[in-house]
Specification:
By secondary structure, this protein is an alpha/beta fold. It is built from 6 helices and 7 strands, in the order E-H-E-H-E-E-E-H-E-H-H-E-H. The strands form 2 sheets. The protein has a 5-stranded parallel β-sheet with strand order 2-5-1-6-7, sandwiched between helices. It has a two-stranded antiparallel sheet with strand order 3-4.
């Protein structure tokens, strides 16, 4: 079958990773290829900094979207793609080489996947995960402290100065363009089952 491409977005901390882990785990590994926008950040020395000298990863320019588009094009053509993991500022994490194998279903996740016009050309189904800001902040604190090595003060600063302004400017406007909007205030069980059922239907 022609690869079916899903673009999944939402505010940072909306629960995209939890949703995708539950979704992808229901399928054989050769059926779904999951590509994260987070592995396409430009190097730190090419990132923009705000007035306080803090790198702002929450702007569309932070992503090498041309490379992301090129890799999705390769996957749709049946090519395997390799890319080094992006570890932000966490020296304790040694970057690994990620292999993206072509599959009948390709999922692209990230806050800007519905922002770039050239990437949208490949997307067949647009999913937006919605959540309340205080829940997003809680999840962001847990993730950034454990995975990215930021202290609490840094996390709170980035959320207020970078995450939410970027969400309101770049992410929220594409919500109306989504085919499916999933509220994740308490859980996403029913929505997860609907998406699972649709993908099983496509594969059959």
């Amino acid at each position: 079958m022609k690869p079916f491409v899903i673009g999944l977005t939402g505010v940072s901390g909306s629960g995209k990773t939890a949703f995708l882990n539950s979704l992808v785990g229901d399928f054989p590994s050769e059926k779904i290829c999951l590509v994260s926008q987070d592995d396409y950040y430009h190097p730190r020395n090419e990132q923009q900094s705000d007035e306080q000298g803090v790198i702002n990863f929450d702007v569309p320019e932070a992503i090498d979207h041309s490379a992301l588009v090129a890799d999705i094009k390769k996957l749709k053509s049946g090519e395997t793609v390799k890319r080094e993991e992006y570890t932000f500022n966490n020296p304790a994490r040694k970057p690994s080489v990620i292999t993206f194998n072509p599959a009948p279903i390709i999922i692209i996740e990230g806050i800007f996947v519905l922002h770039y016009p050239k990437l949208q050309e490949f997307i067949d189904l647009k999913i937006f995960i919605d959540t309340k800001s205080h829940l997003a902040l809680k999840r962001r604190i847990i993730r950034d402290q454990t995975e990215r090595g930021y202290d609490l003060e840094d996390v709170l600063y980035r959320f207020e100065q970078h995450v939410m302004p970027s969400y309101e400017k770049y992410v929220l406007p594409v919500k109306s363009e989504a085919d499916i909007i999933i509220p994740n205030h308490t859980h996403f069980k029913q929505a997860l089952e609907v998406v699972k059922g649709y993908l099983h239907f496509l594969l059959e």
